[in-house]
Amino acid sequence: MHEGQIDLLPGERVIWAGTPVRRPLFNPGDYFNVPFGVLWLGGVTAFFFYNHDTAFHMAAWIVLTVAGVFHLVGRPLVRYLRLASTTYAVTDSRVIATSSLTRRKEETASLAELPDPVITPGPGKTGTITFGRLGVLAWASANYGTGQGKDRKAPVILVGVSDVAKVRERLVRAVDEARQRQTPPKADAVGE
């Protein structure tokens, strides 16, 4: 990825850019998604084992089974394929993750508003960078975002980053500098 592929704001400069060098099939959210999918499939199968009298029941069983299988296998596979087309960029004011599996999708966040970057180590010098520590449910819903209605925004997660410790150091400096630029200087108290 190079600066020509990034839609920069006026006066914005790129600090780091990269792509995932490792694409894990599963992420921490799958500690929730996989058991949920197994329970879903078990419940659907048990219910329809006793209620398979009509064509509607059979059609519903097929649709709900496909949904359960997609939850178990399809979501990780789509995530894996999306990472193949993902690029990351950190500028002096924001972090950007762009992917284009079926259509271009860009996730951005202002550096000044992000919590400190946290590393989840991977093999070798690779790893995943999140902003703040994400729980299992936050990982499980990462594709759906947080917030309400149209304000819903997915967290920016940098997956499969090489030299993850060096990238985190750059991010820490960039986040600190962005916070300092956003915080107005304190006026000196006069006449005390």
Care to describe what's here?
- A hairpin with a 5-residue loop joins strand 5 and strand 6.
- It contains 4 helices and 7 strands.
- It starts with 13 loop residues before the first strand and ends in a 10-residue tail after the last helix.
- Helix content is 39%, strand content 19%.
- Helix 1 packs antiparallel against helix 2.
- It has 192 residues and is of the alpha+beta class.
Detail the topology: elements first, then pairings.
Elements lengths: L13 E5 L11 H21 L4 H30 L2 E5 L2 E6 L5 E6 L6 E5 L5 E5 L4 H5 L17 E4 L2 H19 L10
Antiparallel strand pairs: 1-2, 2-3, 3-4, 5-6, 6-7
Helix pairs in contact: 1-2
Keywords, please?
192 residues; alpha+beta; four-stranded antiparallel sheet; three-stranded antiparallel sheet; 7 strands; 39% helix; 19% strand
Order of strands across the widest beta sheet? 1-2-3-4
Order of helical and strand elements: EHHEEEEEHEH
State Rg: 21 Å
Q: What portion of residues is helical?
A: 25-40%
Number of strands: 7
SSE class = alpha+beta
Cα(first) to Cα(last) distance is 55 Å
Overall mean confidence score, pLDDT:
77
